[in-house]
């Protein structure tokens, strides 16, 4: 189906979303998978998180696209994650057997994402790429996300996210979306393995400091809630 692209007019739909406020990070249960442990990051993780965030490859696809220059930037990022006013559903991702922090990810935008829907993102240190951790961790996060208590909500949705809506439904089926640079084949593959479908590709102004405002080709993906 043809994409309406970046300038499409949003469509207001009634749907469900996780009830706000989300449980405070201090009350969120850890998520266990076969090989990983996921839990909210705390102040105790500062040094380990800095060791990740100073690696350029870890930060290459983040909003600003640059590593932390010193630990105060990591502290600010940790503070932001714990700030209840900046609702997020982000987890630190640890190897269960060793306790090593290797990545972070989850729903970074809970309300009012650029496509209207919650948005997922994730990143790992290169030493742990290609082991299936991206798929394993985000599959578990999504399962936990869909299990959160719901409330009805209004969403200003990009019309391309509504193309598969059944006729006559009163509440739109909920979505989670992802935006990925088209060169990022590994991340696209993770989304495919999680069941996301591609709904459009178009240029957007880059947010990364070294290419600020230049056109960047982004693929847009969505996952519908389990029926
Ligand atoms: C993208 C990223 C999250 C993938 O994590 P991962 O743990 O390596 O992912 P998985 O092992 O679960 O799956 C990766 C898949 O992509 C494939 N892949 C990796 N690089 C690829 C490439 N250049 N071209 C095609 N496929 C590629 C792998 O073969 C694997 O698919 P398979 O299981 O069918 O073989 C990781 O590389 C990363 O953290 N990169 C930096 C940050 C980033 O890009 N984040 C995503 C933006 S939100």
UniProtKB/TrEMBL annotation:
Gene Ontology molecular function: any one: acyltransferase activity, transferring groups other than amino-acyl groups
InterPro entries xref list: Acyl_CoA_acyltransferase, GNAT_dom, N-acetyltransferase
Provenance organism: Xylaria hypoxylon
Name this polypeptide is given: N-acetyltransferase domain-containing protein
Signal sequence residues: none
Residues spanning the membrane: none
Tree of life domain: Eukaryota
Domain N-acetyltransferase: 36-223
């Amino acid at each position: 189906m043809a994409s309406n692209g970046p300038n499409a007019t949003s469509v207001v739909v009634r749907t469900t979303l996780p009830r706000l406020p989300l449980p405070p990070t201090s009350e969120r249960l850890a998520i266990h998978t076969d090989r990983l442990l996921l839990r909210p990051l705390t102040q105790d993780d500062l040094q380990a998180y800095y060791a990740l965030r100073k690696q350029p490859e870890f930060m290459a696809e983040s909003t600003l696209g640059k590593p932390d220059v010193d630990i105060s930037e990591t502290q600010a990022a940790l503070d932001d994650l714990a700030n209840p006013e900046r609702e997020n559903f982000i987890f630190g991702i640890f190897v269960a057997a060793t306790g090593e922090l290797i990545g972070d990810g989850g729903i970074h935008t809970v309300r009012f994402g650029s496509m209207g829907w919650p948005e997922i993102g994730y990143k790992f240190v290169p030493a742990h790429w290609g082991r299936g951790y991206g798929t394993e961790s985000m599959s578990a996060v999504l399962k936990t996300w869909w299990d959160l208590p719901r409330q009805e909500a209004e969403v200003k949705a990009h019309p391309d996210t509504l193309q598969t809506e059944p006729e006559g439904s009163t509440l739109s089926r909920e979505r989670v979306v992802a935006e990925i640079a088209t060169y990022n084949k590994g991340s696209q593959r993770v989304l495919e393995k999680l069941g996301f479908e591609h709904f459009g590709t178009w240029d957007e102004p880059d947010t990364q400091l070294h290419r600020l405002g230049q056109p960047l080709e982004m693929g847009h993906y969505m996952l519908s809630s389990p029926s």
